[in-house]
Structure formats: C-alpha cells, structure tokens
Amino acid sequence: MTAPTTTNTPSSGPLAGPVETRVVSHLHPEGSFDPADHEVPKGLEEIWRFTPLKRLRDLHKDAPLDGHDYEVDLDVAPEVQAGSVDIDDPARGTSTYVPVDRISARAWEASDRLFKITVPAEAVASQPTWVRFRGNGVEKAGAGHVVITAEPFSKATVVIDYVGSATWAENVEIVLGDGAQLTVVAVQDWDDDTVHVSHHHAHVGRDASLKHVLVSFGGDVVRINASVEYAGTGGDVEMLGLYFADAGQHLEHRLFVDHNNPKGRSKVEYKGALQGKDAHTVWIGDVLIRKEGVGIDTYESNDNLVLTDGARADSVPNLEIETGEIEGAGHASTTGRFDDQHLFYLQSRGIPEIEARRLVVHGFFNDVIRRTGVPEIQARLLETVEAELAKHVGVADVVAEA
Fold it and tell me: How far apart are the C-alpha atoms of 197 and 52, rounded to whole Å?
C-alpha cells in the first residue's frame, strides 16, 4: 500500500509553522500539538482498535494529568549531562515530533518539567546512564517529557527503568547528531496496576547509529509507540523489543520507520511470550520507504510464543514502498506454540519435559536479550523470564494437552 503525504502546519508549540512532509494514512494520522485536533477515540479507529480504552483511566479523554507522585533517581555517566529543566527549554521539539494521537498531545500540553539528557559532541560515555523512575500511586495521572540528545560523533547508552505503580502518559524525544552512536533502553517493569502510554520518536542524523530497545513485562495496560525518521543519508537504526504478558495484561507496541532520506538502514525485531487467561499482546509494525528513500535496506519481524490457552497475540507487519530503487525490504510475523521438534531433541538427550520447555523459552528470547548490549539488563531479563515462567506452574501441562 502506498500512503499519501501532506505538509503539516502545527498551530502551537515549539515547532509552530510548516514542517517537513509527513504521512497521512489510516496508520499515521496527521499530527497536531492541540489535543482538540485529535478526536476522542472510540475504539473503531485503526490505531485504537486493539487497545482496551475502558482500562486507560480516561487518559484518552480528559483525565487531569497533574499527578506528581513519583521519584526519579539518576546514575549518570561522568561524560553525560542530565537533569530536570524548565518545560520551555529549547531542547523540547528538536526531534521534530508532532503528536499523532490524543494522549500524546495531552501529555505534551500537560507536562510541566522536561527531563533532559545530553551527550556532548565527540564524548564517549564510560558507562551507561540510568534513569530510574518509580511511581508511587495510580490515583492521579501524570505526564512526562524526556529529551535524549546525542550530539555529533558522540557515543553513549541511556537506560530508562520504570517500576512501581502509576497512571502515566509521556513523550520521549531522541535526537542523534551526525555520526553519533546511541543506545536507548526502556524497561517497563511496572507493578500490575499501572497504565502507561508513551510515544518515543527518534530523529537520526547523517551516518548516525541508533539502537532502540523496548522491554515490557509489568503493568496492567502498556501501550508504546516508537517512530523513527532520518535527518540525512546513511542513518542506521536497530529496533529491538521483548515482552512477556501474564493473565489479564495488555502489552501493545506500535512502530513506524520513515525512510525519508537515501541510503538508510533499519532492522526491527520484536519477540514476545504470553501465558494465562486473557493475556493479550499487540505488535503493529510499519516501514515507509518514500520516493526519495533510494538505496534503503530494511527488514522487520515479530515472533510470538503462546504458552497457554486463553492468550491472544495480534501481529500486523506493514511495508509501504514508493520507489523501486532499494537494496532490500521485507517483513515477517509468526505466532505459535512450542516447537515439538525442539522438545523432542532435548528430551531424547535425557532432559525432563518441564526443563526442556523452559530451555525453549530461554532460547526464544536469548538472541534479543544478548543484543541489548547492557550486561546489567541482560542478567536482569534472564532472571525476569525465569520468574515469569515460575508464575505459571502448570504451563507445561496446559501446552502439552493443546
């Protein structure tokens, strides 16, 4: 499918006035900073049809976003600058992002502080920078805004770690200067009562390299949009994701890669597992190669492992191509149960069935975990996968009977 384009003119905000051509389609509505320009979703719209709106605590309607019941702890690399600044700081809006849905626009409008992380030009961070966000209650909804800037030819890793309980809406802007190398990891390890809706948008400079990792384990409803656009030729983006949904959880990830410049590269790989009654995951991926995006090499994939009856995984890959002058483009999606051949191989070598099933799950996730590039995160994710499997003692028996 080929998407139409338009020139969008925001009515307010730091990017007021004409901005570059953007996509307008059923997957990518026209952006605006004004919440009134975004209709209250009813659940019939393409971008909302999988989301349980009744469980969003009116984030999509008019719930006040003035809650501040949270704490932020920092562990900042010596070479990196980080802290809370005034919301009118000029860093806000530098990603060129314009909110594409009502919750994002409401969060942009309601945020009263900006959390700013800057990697100076040519700096090489000696350790990851950690931002640990702890929510202390779900009663009052809050809104946040984060801007991560990697100036030209810098190199760094930033980890945002979400824990506790919250009703939280936010926008995360990621800006890479020319030649910068940046890894951003966001871990949603919330308590089971949390509702978290977020939009990550990356603006990738000429010959810059971004690794973007989303990990979702906790929360009642977690919905994260992640989008990328290129500010010059030669940008390289890797988007990795890992999620594990338990009974009743809704974990939704929506991705959009806009190849709006020549000779760019993108690779998207998300893996998820589900177990328990009414566990629900949603993955929507879309790559747009514009007419000017010649020489592009892109691939997106999503794999889901269903561990028990009663769980549901929705996976919809999309590829929109407006030019035939590309290096490569493709997508794939799989949803299934355990591979009987893998189990037979392990059991034939004396490994008990329950242990064999556990090893299959670990093997399913291992490649993505390894490629996060942060040893502390890798160890924690392996432990978390083990803990998730332990929650469902009967998983082996249920799947074996299916």
Answer: 12
Nearest to 229 by CA among 258, 199, 252, 205: 258
Count how many residues are written for the chain: 402
Return the closest-CA partner of residue 238 out of 97, 343, 401, 367: 367
Give the pLDDT of residue 76: 98
Instruction: Tell me what pLDDT residue 25 has.
Output: 56
CA atoms within 13 A on the CB side of 107: 29
The predicted structure's pLDDT at residue 401: 40
pLDDT tens by residue, 347-366: 777 777 777 777 778 888 98
Rounded CA-CA distance 134/187 in Å is 12
Token output for 250: 């809704």
Residue 241: partners with Cβ closer than 8 Å, 6 or more residues away: 213, 214, 215, 216, 253, 269, 270, 271, 272, 283, 368
Domain boundaries, the chain: 5-338
Nearest to 182 by CA among 144, 227, 265, 239: 239
336 backbone dihedrals φ, ψ, rounded to 5°: -165, 180
The amino acid occupying position 159 is V
Closest to 388 (Cα-Cα) out of 249, 285, 256, 270: 249
Question: Residue 72: beta bridge partners?
Answer: 133
From CA 217, how far away is CA 222, in angstroms rounded? 9
Contact 286, 318 (CB under 8 A): yes
Contacts of 173 (CB under 8 A, 6+ apart): 91, 92, 93, 94, 95, 97, 145, 146, 147, 148, 201, 203
Q: What is the pTM of this model?
A: 0.90
Give the span between the Cα atoms of 342 and 334, in whole angstroms. 17
Secondary structure of residue 78 in the 3-state scheme: coil
Is pLDDT of 117 > 60?
Answer: yes
